[in-house]
Input
Amino acid sequence: MGSADGMIAAARTSLGMSGRPNAITRAYAKRHGKEFLKAPWCDMAVTEWARQSGNADAVLPGGDRAYTVWHAQDFQKIGRWSSGTTENVNGAQPGWIVFFDWGQTNRVTAIDHVGVVEKVLGGGRVQTIEGNTGDACKRRVRASSVIAGFGRPAYGFAHWTEEIVGRLPTLRKGAEGEHVQTLRALLMARSHPEIGTVDGPFDTTVELAVRAVQMWGRVQPDGVVGPKTWPVLLRVH
Amino acid sequence: MSLPEEMEHVDVHPDVHRATEADEEDVLRELYGEPDENGIYTGIEGT
Output
């Protein structure tokens, strides 16, 4: 079964590759015709990394791609597309497929380049691995202003955890109810006996424990339990 | 066979091929160390 880590590892093996034909265009051309041997190869790179890492189903929902617009549309069709807003860039995950439009339009039809997210830097920026940037495979730093959006591959294990986390509410101080009980139980299981009991509100004690867990999990220690903190509490981050 | 027409629209913008963040070199050097002889950062984070 593939994974985001596997996808990134495959991309790293291409760092430094340059010129064309190269190993990526040769592999793609072998299946789709020799006219691709010297063609623009950013999306061919994503295609080959996906196939090499066992992630073809997740990363290539419409099959092999060399044309970036169609690849982005493939993700839109299956509901796994996020536009390139600053908020979405900050919430991106390593292994997401990042599409560029350069004109700050976020229009899918304007996309002409693609890469894979290796690291989320914060501040509306990601660090990527891109094929055919200067006719080589390189790491880049890109900001939301040039990102049209992301394809969110349904990577094996990550897929179901993402779905579960997506159903959990964002909790902050003052919250009450069943999900707060779950939170309190998780905090107690994560070595925070000061919580006391499962029953009770999201109070100051809970908030302090949440901040401690966030610091341990290396997420923003804001005391708010959202999409980045639930995985830390559930130990699936 | 000739290349499909849509491929003429891939990797065409100049920004595809250059840094779009002024501090890109600094960020990558901090994460991955010095670049190789071709200026490409191939290192492993934290080493």
Summary: Residues 21-47 of chain B form one domain. The interface with chain A takes residues 1-4, 6-7, 9-13, 15-21, 23-24, 27-28, 31-32, 36, 38, 40-42, 45 of chain B (CB under 8 Å).
